[in-house]
Specification:
Length: 531
């Protein structure tokens, strides 16, 4: 009899183990990293400690050839791409501050793509909600699969990335205000403004209060032995301070120090909520930073390498927190760069400047010669859009398509202009062009249909808008698509290195496949290891 019982017990134990291995994790942690570069990550890999990024790279499935489909992506659009699997045409998010036509036809920039007068802010004057999202996110699909029982939290330095990470159904979404430096939120979210977040801003604990005494200096000298920094004149003993104003807060959020603040905040969520404590899968989205600092005068600086080291330490801290909260064996961790990077063009690199005001004036004269007196051009923007005066065009009973074509034809002859496309052409071809057509996808993603300018254009690589926001004494930072990395670590991981190119739009489908839930949109599933 005992000979029969022992094999049966062993079989039952084996079945239970297989169920745990095949089961859905208790916790999903999505780490999106602004400006993460595959080449730098590979370069510093041997110098990193064992418990942070190196651990994920060795234990996870690593896609090291991940690409953004947009030619000039921005962080907000890239975050939306990652979480929804589609571009602005599908998800409604093209940029942080879109240009909007008022009812009188005037064009102005919104403070945020998520502006919503219906919801006031906690500790901020911003009024924001995720209602602008027109496609579900990974978090939304998990919430739907669990019938609303999954807990969802999202944190980021900036409001837009935090809101995207939380989707429509987050319990709590928190970000750092641009003006007062506090952790803030919106009344849209059911958790409101919990005491543990309030305490982050309390007294001398607050970021704003600490700015006046905060000094950013190197944390790990070993990284500065890389060939990038062995040339003459590189200051490896940098020191940066931060002013107590909006500019100081912005620079702090674009420094290596921001990742530690995010790590501390997510630690409080793990400690003060029920996230990851039961069998129903919960989700935390965290937007980290791996870009150069605001005043960098070259592409690879000691500050950038320090940022990678501090990113590594933040990831190590988060892994420890996960171990305490739900256990790494019950957690899916996904770390992915957003596929965009700021490339520095020095003053010597820039061969020409595009004058927005001059273009506006000359084009207005040209259109007047065709159709008569009037202010025919509302705005020429720094992201390559021209807004016509549609009220005037309508009152003159003119064909909008014809006026767009005349404006586009005139613009094509300007020095430094690389391409010109009318809004009419984009609308006509929106459902016809392949998703692999990067030029078309970039034009289409400039704005959603109702907010896009009448003419979309871009400059040659070494040309700059004279009013460009990122034009400094050192040169111009342009936002370009870069190759980045995607790491998935799942319970009982089987590590693998996958070199097959992966479109960022397909990251969400990969994560949802592992979770056994439907993807937000119809992304393609790349090569996967065993899960």
């Amino acid at each position: 009899m005992n000979k029969l019982i022992v094999p049966i017990i062993a079989l039952l134990a084996m079945c239970q183990t297989q169920q745990v291995e095949a089961g859905i994790p208790r916790l999903v942690v999505l780490l999106s990293v602004d400006e993460l570069r595959s080449d730098l990550l590979d370069e510093i890999f041997p110098l990193l400690p064992e418990d942070g990024l190196k651990r994920l790279l060795e234990e996870g499935q690593v896609y090291n050839n991940v690409n953004n489909p947009l030619l000039s992506p921005n962080s907000t659009a890239s975050q939306a791409l990652l979480h929804t699997g589609t571009t602005a045409l599908g998800n409604g998010i093209a940029t942080r501050r879109p240009f909007v036509r008022a009812s009188d036809g005037k064009v102005s920039a919104h403070n945020s793509v998520f502006h919503d007068e219906q919801y006031i802010g906690y500790a901020t004057s911003s009024r924001l909600s995720p209602k602008r999202l027109s496609a579900p996110t990974i978090a939304d699909k998990l919430w739907q699969a669990s019938k609303g029982e999954s807990l969802i939290y999202s944190l980021a330095p900036n409001a837009e990335e935090a809101i995207i990470g939380g989707g429509q159904h987050a319990d709590g979404v928190f970000w750092i205000d641009d003006y007062n430096g506090k952790w803030v939120s919106s009344t849209y979210y059911k958790d409101g403004y919990p005491p543990y977040i309030y305490r982050l801003n309390d007294g001398e604990n607050g970021i704003y209060q600490r700015l006046k005494s905060t000094i950013w200096s190197p944390a790990y000298g070993q990284l500065y032995k890389l060939p990038y920094l062995l040339r003459k004149g590189v200051n490896q003993n940098f020191k940066h301070s931060f002013s107590q104003n909006g500019e100081g807060i912005t620079k702090f959020k674009q420094s290596a120090l921001i990742n530690e603040e995010l790590s501390k905040a997510v630690d409080l969520i793990f400690a003060n909520t029920e996230i990851g404590k039961d069998e129903i899968p919960d989700l935390v989205s965290l937007n980290l930073f791996a870009g150069n600092h605001a005043d960098a005068d070259q592409d690879v600086t000691p500050e950038l390498l320090d940022t990678y080291y501090r990113l590594d330490r933040a990831v190590a801290s988060i892994l420890k927190q996960i171990e305490i909260c739900s256990g790494l064996s019950q957690t899916l961790i996904a770390l992915v760069g957003n596929g965009m990077g700021r490339e520095l063009y020095t003053q010597d690199d820039i061969i020409g400047y595009f004058h927005n005001d001059r273009c506006k004036a000359l084009m207005n004269v040209f259109i007047m010669a065709q159709y008569g007196q009037g202010n025919w051009i509302e705005e020429v923007t720094n992201d390559g859009q021209i807004f016509l005066n549609r009220k005037l065009i309508e009152s003159q009973k003119l064909d909008l398509r014809e006026v767009q074509q005349k404006a586009a034809g005139f613009l094509q002859d300007f020095s430094g202009v690389q391409y010109v496309v009318t809004d009419y052409e984009l609308r006509q071809r929106a459902t016809l062009e392949s998703r692999e057509n990067a030029l078309f996808q970039s034009c289409l993603n400039r704005a959603i249909h109702k907010e896009r300018g009448d003419v979309v254009f871009d400059l040659l690589p070494n040309w700059a808008f004279i009013r460009a926001e990122h034009l400094t004494d050192s040169g111009l930072y342009k936002q370009n698509a870069i190759q980045t990395t995607f790491i998935v670590r799942y319970p009982n991981p089987k590590s693998a290195k996958i070199t097959t190119p992966l479109d960022i739009r397909d990251v969400s489908a990969t994560i949802c496949h592992i979770l056994r839930i439907r993807p937000p949109t119809s992304g393609r599933l790349p090569a996967l290891g065993s899960h």
